[in-house]
Design a protein that fits this description.
By secondary structure, the chain is of the alpha/beta class. Helices cover 40% and strands 16% of the residues. The chain has helices spanning 14-20, 53-63, 77-82, 84-105, 136-151, 173-182, 200-212, 229-240, 270-276, 283-295, 298-303, and strands at 4-9, 27-33, 44-47, 67-70, 108-112, 156-159, 162-163, 187-190, 194-195, 198-199, 217-220, 227-228, 247-250. The chain binds NADP nicotinamide-adenine-dinucleotide phosphate.
């Protein structure tokens, strides 16, 4: 059977790099780039135009992907708040261009949404909950999700929160914990900020399974346990044998200097577990995989980008 081709937008980012490098016999991948013109192992990389539908149509005609996974975005909450029109352009307008061109060419489109769509007053929210974002990042990500599902009800929107290995220019949350403690620096972790993180390895394989089963609409693809940032950090430190005395517990509720965020980002992953008839996002198993990714040199490939 011919291999399918996946085009990742946002190819230099944390998500696309960790996902595109996963061993996958069934797929060829292309990393679509913007400003950072990186080269990665044996992957095909290409600067792509998402500024207009016509521009992205030309990209599709050239690359001929079967699936587009839209990872490009302005994911920094502070940057979105500082420049809402830039956040709207990157998160909404570019997503609409990419989705519109995919619809025209009959290509399967996966939008990477977020867990930042709610007020944070309720834990483990399902896909049916009415969103009420509290900042520009959440508002623009939600607007994009609505618009792409209006373009086609066959598209997939994945609400998530992930970690993996970052290149030098983009540290992940787990990188921040591991690197600082290894360098004997303290790390400050919130005990009152909750989420349901998933390792990109499991996120990537799970989304590809959803695509292969023709899933559409909104799916939460997250870890199966609601934990605080400090509990997550402690579990990472345990598995990596890090000095936990360097973990300083702090309170998100005391950080009035930060842009407003929901203090509980946790999402329920019941729908995806039921659809795939299996468990998704076991936190300890994911941390074990993160550990193995370092042992087997996977992390090195990304750190050397
Ligand atoms: N990080 C998380 O835990 C998290 C959680 C939930 C959802 N998400 C969503 O997941 C997606 C990927 O996140 P990430 O953490 O991998 O992001 P990231 O590491 O910040 O990477 C963002 C990517 O978007 C590209 N990009 C930014 N502005 C662009 C523009 N104007 N035109 C074209 N490309 C542009 C960047 O390329 P250049 O650097 O070359 O500009 C980069 O490749 C985002 O949509 C984010 O909202 C992230």
């Amino acid at each position: 059977m011919a291999k399918k081709k996946i085009l990742f937008t946002g190819g230099s980012g944390l998500l696309a790099l960790n996902w595109a490098l996963l061993p996958a016999d069934a797929y060829d991948v292309v990393l679509g780039l913007h400003k950072k013109n990186i080269s990665v192992n044996n992957l095909v990389t290409m600067i792509i135009d998402m500024e207009t539908i016509t521009g992205f149509s030309a990209v599709l005609e050239n690359i001929k992907p079967d699936i587009v996974i839209h990872c490009a975005g302005l994911a920094n909450v502070e940057a979105c708040e500082a420049d809402p029109s830039m956040a709207y352009h990157v998160n909404v307008e570019l997503s609409v261009n990419v989705a519109g061109a995919c619809k025209m060419h009959g290509i399967h489109f996966v939008y990477i949404s977020t867990d930042h769509l709610f007020s944070g007053k309720k834990a483990l929210v399902s896909e049916d909950e009415i969103p009420s974002p509290v900042n520009e990042y959440g508002k623009t990500k939600l607007e994009a999700e609505k618009k792409i599902l209006e373009i086609s009800d066959r598209f997939l929107s994945i609400r998530t929160n992930f970690y993996g290995w970052g290149p030098a220019y983009r540290q992940s949350f787990s990188d921040m914990i591991i690197t600082n403690i290894r360098n004997k620096k303290p790390v400050s972790l919130f005990e009152d900020f909750y989420y349901t993180p998933i390792l990109i390895e499991e996120l990537g394989y799970t989304v590809m399974e959803l695509v292969s089963k023709h899933a559409n609409g909104i799916f939460n693809v997250t870890g199966n346990e609601r934990i605080s940032k400090s509990v997550f950090g402690n579990r990472v430190a345990d598995r990596f044998g890090l000095d936990k005395s360097l973990i300083r517990i702090s309170k998100f509720s005391e950080r009035k200097d930060l842009v407003k965020r929901p203090a509980d980002l946790s999402l329920s992953n019941k729908k995806v577990c039921t659809f795939l008839n299996r468990e998704v996002g076991n936190i300890d198993a994911n941390i074990e995989k993160l550990f193995l990714q370092e042992k087997t040199g996977f992390s090195n490939i990304i750190q050397n980008v």
